[in-house]
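User: I'm preparing a small set of examples for a lab meeting where we compare how different chains pack in three dimensions. I only have the primary sequence for this one, and I'd like the structure in token form so I can line it up with the others. Please keep the answer compact; I'll paste it straight into my notes.
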Amino acid sequence: MKRVFLIVLDSLGAGQMPDAPVFGDRDCHTLKRIAGSKKFAFNSMKKMGMGNIDGQEFLPREEKPLAAVARVAELSCGKDSTIGHWEIAGVVSPAPLPTYPDGFPPEVTEEFTKLTGRGILLNKPYSGTDAIREYGREHMETGKLIVYTSADSVFQIAAHEDIVPVETLYEYCRLARNMLQGKHGVGRVIARPFVGTPEEGFTRTYNRRDFSLEAPEETVLDRLAAEGKTVYGIGKIEDLFAHRGLTKSIHTGSNTEGMAKALEALDLDFEGLCFVNLVDFDAKYGHRQDVDGYAAAFAEFDAWLPSFLAKMRDEDVLMITADHGCDPGDSHTDHTREYIPLLICGKPVKPLNLGTIEGFATIAATVADYLGSSYKCGSKSLLPVIAKPSKDEKALVKAALEAMEKSYSPYSGFKVGAALLAENGKIYSGCNIENAAYSPSVCAERTAIFKAVSEGVSSFKMLAVCGGKGGKVKGVFPPCGVCRQVIAEFCSPDMPVLLISGRNSFERTTFGSLLPGAFSPSFMGKSDAGK
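Assistant: Understood. Below is the structure token output for the 531-residue chain.
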């Protein structure tokens, strides 16, 4: 039973992206900033290989990491949680969501006042803690709502829980969410309840709730749920995706609670995705410019991680990443435009360094691929690169290599071997056979196919091919054009193809990737190839 646990360390950026100045950011690197704190601990994540990621040279490297690691660049035009999570789930946002550096226009504030029957205070980009400290007393005296924004696309409503009950505040947020569409379609409407007194000070509570704009396209969550798989959201995942695409969700009040719920999820029997957001990094420490607090939260996660890894099942895959940056030591309190780290581990995963990758949607593509979903997005899955060889793959590679040794190639000296795994589980192998006249020569792939068909077998699951001069495998050698056309007669575009690059290594692809737009039996009115 395959399960993916995707944990987002909210705002744990892995270094400034080249276009960061366009977003008002300079000299930002969230992970590097907190690594300088005495509260920082880096034991479990070191073993995972976080120090091996591009741009993290300030961290110690791991010679034998547990995870496949990468630094991932954002393609969307933004640096906030909504756009970041959308892209992680497969949807790239080419245009930014609206922001309000001068506050919301009268057409917005007047309509909101009309809907709620309450006036508003502030209406500027503002620090949340400053907002309640400076306007909390007036709010309690007048009942007016504290409305503010930030550099992100957000409409935030702060209210004292004794003046505006939490459920009433949520209803005001729903009214705002329905109102803020189209050109004023902000990414999130956020409820910011607080408690306390003007004399003793105010404190925001864990009853924060986000009301997000719906993703404009289908996400991997939507597709997985439609296909009958479990999609379990923990933390603010339900808010960020407007409760869409989730079959189960639980809202948490802290990183500690979120990690506890993630640990409990390991005991559940399901096939699908468990998507976790740990928001304290961002909300409690990043925005508040608390470097030590951020570092301590990272240390807590680092100490918790071994307990999670110990409970993972054989087919479980863990992915740890972020959604943007929020450098707690830079010149402002807003999010920062940064790369994100990506660490993938589990028994099915081969640890390696993937370098720098374009697009958070790579995560969605990989999740879909591993779970056998039909979901497609603009990014490629990492699974062909990071997956450990299966028993079938190992057997097929072995058969192709053995067939290569039998090659009859006295003229070119180029030996090729191929092996086909049939639907019935049997492997058919073949080698290239040359002729002095050359034209009667036959390739290894066709030899394997013709052998199988001559024995009444015409349905296949996988193909492996290897080749090299003098019998030494070096580099990959895809099937020639003639062989590809013959393969198209019997195999589907989705059939996996292993291009063997060495005695113990191969690249995964699909037949459709090798021969897009092939002349197939469907052109002749036949729907079932080879049957």
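A couple of notes for your slides: The chain has 17 helices and 19 strands. The domain at 106-211 is CATH 3.30.70.1250 (Alpha-Beta Plaits).

User: Perfect, thanks.
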